[in-house]
């Protein structure tokens, strides 16, 4: 089969997410792919990155040799702190999340259902060890939840589905999905496609999606 | 560049609407945002629900707000003081509603509001008049009362220093309800004695991170 | 009637309470009479005074002219802070109280019942305005509750009673009562008199008390 | 003169008994009280219940405690990490019990433990596997799960500086669970990088007041 499109790279998805983040927003970037979004945030806007281990105002990676084991993010990577940033304990940090003070959280996902349900914490296979971290708090607590993921799994299975097959992280909490193929809003009327990558048709996108899409491009 | 510094108290409180629930910081006069309250009196918003530890002292600040007839209901722990005569008169005349909440329950309900909890079981006030009609539960042999969160449409608080991102530090026992009220309100306005440059507040010492603060107003020392 | 005794003054009761406070204790002194206890604490022992408005390590009254409106106690009196003291917000302050971190709280009272019930917040008359402050939190939260009060009311009515007549502050929480006439432990077996002031007999004390006393002097 | 400074880690942990519940600070390695844990391994207490965000990294600290066979059960939010192989093996061999708790619920339960609440309603995990069998309630249209406090017989935490009254300050993101675990435990032991004179810590900057701390051990920088 001849394809006329090149899926977005992780960097390209991250850049696309970053474009939608507004000045003044308090943002939590989940572990994994979402962490990349930080690299594409505009330097001239004040956007506040929160890390659930007690940091607000995360800055870029430290220069080599400047790493501090006491200054890490939720993914346990070395970070820096911007001027105006602050430290606080885990209770206060999750008060920020659960209390609805985080404007936006960007999460990775195994699956997203058309009603906004998200599964991203546990595959539930016999060999898996459950480990949730802050995923469930972020899913229910952030004002908006964006998901950033590949459109289909490594086996070509749709990751956007009618109903989750995997254990759920949070109910009806995803507002928007950014994949390597499209940007899709989760609305009361269904999954509204806002943007498709160049060269891919709506019909082709629908074929790779496990739930009905609405063409709003 | 994000700048939460607002020029005047009048401008800061200009969105406060009739019927709003306002958490006002302070324990007696310590930490009471007197100038923000003055601006609110000028605005003459009506039917306010006020949450504060007390119900006003003397003739100024919160007491003046009550006197101006702006307040429909007050939620507090300790209304009756030697100088709470304005409240006392309104209360006895049936012109103001009062909800008395134990001070620690007040703090815990405000913290629940700020941290997204739906309700909490507290041992305080079990078996007392203040728990009448409330749901109770015995957990591990201790009796608890179910209490619901308090959230503000607005918080008015007073801090010592603030920066343009809304980070705050306080002065001594004037800290009291400021940090927890800031976290529990949709729109928090802090009056500060000094506005400092971003980075001037040590990140280890910031008591209220800017995420909980929406406007910072500089109120200089009185002439 | 000839009496052979002089009731303790408030200062004398306060001194008596202070004698029972041990080094290293975290202590909250209620508004009113109990505040006096601070004046009689030994200088050579570290005893930590907590004030529910966010102060630990309260020191003595400030010198004249050194008063600071931002440094007050729960009774809204000017205080000082000792070296090693700290400030915190109301949430943390009541976590200390409710969480059982305060070793001892000394409260004033209108009435104490023989089972340790205390009434000290509201007389409940038509003209009274209810105002509780931190009294209910202290009553249930402190590890030990001592009451400091006159043995009888101004009208000569016993304040130690079988059952409270006034609105209750906290159930079964008083451990010891210090009055101008005696020191009495609240025990599972009843009210055990530990000490009576000079010149007063147990029978005379019993006559001024609304509940049965046990003589453990 | 009250002095909470204890000479050695060995002495500090000497009262920890078999079957104790121990809250151990740290998020990964940041804030993990490694030397206190080493002393605990030496003591060889058994059947411990450990509360930590993770389940150990590599071969040291908490991981070494697990390897030593001291731990019956671990309560944590994120056991599985790239270097959690010691835990992974024990878990798969059925040699350790695991209670997975969402990180914010872990924090909130610890806070409830420290502040004397009997239970809390949290929205986190509603409708998920982690809420299975738990009581739920809908309040104002939001679904909540009832969660109970976590309290420790002991807390082992790491701070930057401490004084003889037990006042503590922390370093950057190593603060994490330290303050809330200190408050939730009957006996809190803090290892600090520096012991300072009473009064050297500014009362405005103290993060954990000494009331929550029972022993302070100086652990110098590693040679």
UniProtKB/TrEMBL annotation, chains A, C:
Species of the source: Psychrobacter coccoides
Protein name: 3-oxoacid CoA-transferase subunit B
Keyword Manganese: no
UniProt entry keywords in alphabetical sequence: Transferase
SUPFAM superfamilies to which the protein is assigned, alphabetical: NagB/RpiA/CoA transferase-like
Domain of life: Bacteria
Alphabetized PANTHER family for the sequence: KETOACID-COENZYME A TRANSFERASE (PTHR13707), SUCCINYL-COA:3-KETOACID COENZYME A TRANSFERASE SUBUNIT B-RELATED (PTHR13707:SF57)
Record has Nucleotide-binding as a keyword: no
Gene3D superfamilies the UniProt entry points to: Glutaconate Coenzyme A-transferase
Alphabetical list of InterPro entries matching this protein: 3-oxoacid_CoA-transf_B, CoA_trans_fam_I, CoA_transf_AS, NagB/RpiA_transferase-like
SMART domains for this protein: CoA_trans
Family that this chain belongs to: Belongs to the 3-oxoacid CoA-transferase subunit B family.
Automatic annotation (TrEMBL), chains B, D:
A Pfam family: CoA_trans
SUPFAM superfamilies reported for this sequence: NagB/RpiA/CoA transferase-like
Keywords assigned: Transferase
PROSITE patterns in UniProt: COA_TRANSF_1
Keyword flag Transit peptide: no
Keyword rRNA processing part of the UniProt annotation: no
Source superkingdom: Bacteria
Membership in a protein family: Belongs to the 3-oxoacid CoA-transferase subunit A family.
Protein name: 3-oxoacid CoA-transferase subunit A
Native organism: Psychrobacter coccoides
């Amino acid at each position: 089969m001849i394809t006329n499109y090149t899926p977005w790279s992780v960097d390209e998805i991250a850049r696309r997410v970053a474009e939608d983040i507004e000045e003044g927003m308090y943002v939590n970037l989940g572990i994994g792919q979402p962490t990349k979004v930080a690299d594409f945030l505009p330097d001239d806007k004040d956007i506040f990155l929160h890390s659930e281990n007690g940091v607000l105002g995360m800055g870029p990676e430290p220069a080599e040799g400047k790493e501090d084991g006491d200054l890490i993010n939720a993914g346990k990577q070395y970070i820096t702190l911007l001027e105006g940033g602050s430290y606080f304990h885990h209770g206060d940090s999750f008060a920020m999340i659960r209390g609805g003070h985080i404007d936006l959280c960007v999460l990775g996902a195994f699956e997203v259902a058309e009603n906004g349900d998200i599964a991203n914490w546990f595959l539930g296979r016999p060999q898996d060890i459950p480990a949730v971290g802050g995923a469930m708090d972020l899913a229910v607590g952030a004002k908006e939840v964006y998901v950033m993921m590949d459109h289909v799994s490594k086996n070509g299975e749709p990751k956007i589905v009618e109903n989750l097959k995997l254990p759920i992280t949070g109910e009806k909490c995803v507002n928007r999905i950014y994949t390597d193929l499209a940007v899709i809003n989760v609305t009361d009327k269904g999954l509204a496609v806002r943007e498709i990558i160049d060269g891919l048709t709506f019909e082709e996108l629908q074929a790779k999606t496990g739930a009905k899409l609405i063409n709003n491009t | 560049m994000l700048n939460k510094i607002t020029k005047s108290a009048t401008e800061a409180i200009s969105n406060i609407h009739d019927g709003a629930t306002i958490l006002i910081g302070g324990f007696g006069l310590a930490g009471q945002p007197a100038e923000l309250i003055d601006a609110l009196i000028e605005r003459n918003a009506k039917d306010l629900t006020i949450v504060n530890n007390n119900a006003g002292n003397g003739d100024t600040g919160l007491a003046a707000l009550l006197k101006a007839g702006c307040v429909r209901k007050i939620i507090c722990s300790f209304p009756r003081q030697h100088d709470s005569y304005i409240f006392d008169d309104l209360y006895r005349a049936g012109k103001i509603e009062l909800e008395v909440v134990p001070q620690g329950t007040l703090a815990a309900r405000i913290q629940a509001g700020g941290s997204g909890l739906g309700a909490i079981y507290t041992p305080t006030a079990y078996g007392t008049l203040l728990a009448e009609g409330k749901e109770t539960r015995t957990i591990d042999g201790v009796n608890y009362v179910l209490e619901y969160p308090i959230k503000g449409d607005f918080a008015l608080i007073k801090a010592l220093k603030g920066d343009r991102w809304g980070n705050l530090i306080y002065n001594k026992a004037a800290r009291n309800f400021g940090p927890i009220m800031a976290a529990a309100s949709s729109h928090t306005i802090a009056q500060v004695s000094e506005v400092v440059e971003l980075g001037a507040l040590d990140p280890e010492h910031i008591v209220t991170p800017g995420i909980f603060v929406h406007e910072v107003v500089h109120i200089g020392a009185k002439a």
